[in-house]
Design brief:
Helices cover 36% and strands 26% of the residues. The chain has eight helices and eleven strands.
């Protein structure tokens, strides 16, 4: 069975920040969606997040076109997931070098959560504390792990999740693009089902709108574009303390006509 996944997206500055350091990219021709939350002085965060989504998209497209098998290669995951992970590592190298090239962008970095549809599964390459959620059977599951100090404390039993959500340390990341020369990038693969929905978002959403509210809104608003707009509006109604970027997409079966069209296009590529 082959699926299609089309995303809607909204990005907003929020009520407190003066500029938007989030970036996202939808590449339906590659069945790829990315969201990034930049950090750094002046507009460096915006530079870092922009580089992250552009370099990742372009490098993945190049590797997909050539069929290049990256090194190192993780046999636990499919070729496409490995290619996406390699593309994210290249984005890190670009951001790291740019951040060390001069004082203007010194210390800049960004989160990056990328979601790639490969036949009947979603492949994720992720670093930082932006999130990817799966909505299935009216239940919301976080597919990514937050690379943050408070989540490290939660895993060690030093904090509960409720305490972590209000901790003054919640903005301290343990991993991000540009912060290290070769950071670990998480790869995740998940089998999909018809009707699944995916939510990609920066922390400006989930720090202002708690998971029960996210779940309730997604369950009552089936239209992806309207869900994005309503989630951003809710985050702003709750104070909008940070930039807010939201991507929502629904998994659907491809029709026979769409499947045949894909085969025809690939045979002449």
């Amino acid at each position: 069975m082959t699926f299609k996944l089309e995303f809607a997206a909204v990005s907003d500055t929020g009520k407190v920040r003066t500029n938007n350091e989030d970036n996202f990219l939808l590449a339906p021709e590659l069945e790829l969606a990315l969201v990034a939350d930049g950090m750094g002085g002046h507009n460096s965060g915006e530079v870092a997040s922009s580089l992250a989504v552009k370099v990742t998209r372009d490098k993945y497209e190049s590797m997909r076109r050539t069929g290049l098998k990256p090194t190192p290669y993780n046999d636990t995951f499919c070729l496409e997931a490995n290619q996406l992970g390699f593309a994210v590592q290249l984005a890190n190298s670009v951001i790291y070098e740019a951040g060390n090239a001069g004082a203007e962008n010194k210390g800049m970095g960004t989160t990056l959560s990328s979601a790639l549809l490969v036949r009947n599964k979603i492949c994720l390459a992720h670093i930082g504390d932006s999130r990817v959620y799966l909505l299935r059977d009216k239940a919301l599951t976080q597919l990514t792990e937050d690379h943050s100090l408070v989540m490290e404390h939660v895993k060690k039993g030093l904090l509960t999740r409720a305490q972590a959500e209000v901790s003054p340390l919640q903005n301290i990341l343990t991993r991000a693009l540009g912060a290290q020369k070769t950071p670990a990038v998480d790869l995740v693969e998940k089998e999909l089902a018809d009707g699944d929905r995916l939510l990609l978002c920066t922390d400006g959403l989930f720090k202002a709108v708690k998971e029960p509210e996210l779940l309730a809104l997604l369950n009552t608003q089936p239209d992806d574009a309207k869900a994005c707009a309503e989630l951003v509006a809710l985050a702003n109604a709750n104070g909008g303390p940070d930039n807010i970027t939201v991507l929502v997409g629904t998994v659907r079966k491809k029709t026979l006509k769409e499947t045949v069209k894909d085969l025809f296009r690939k045979s002449y590529a």
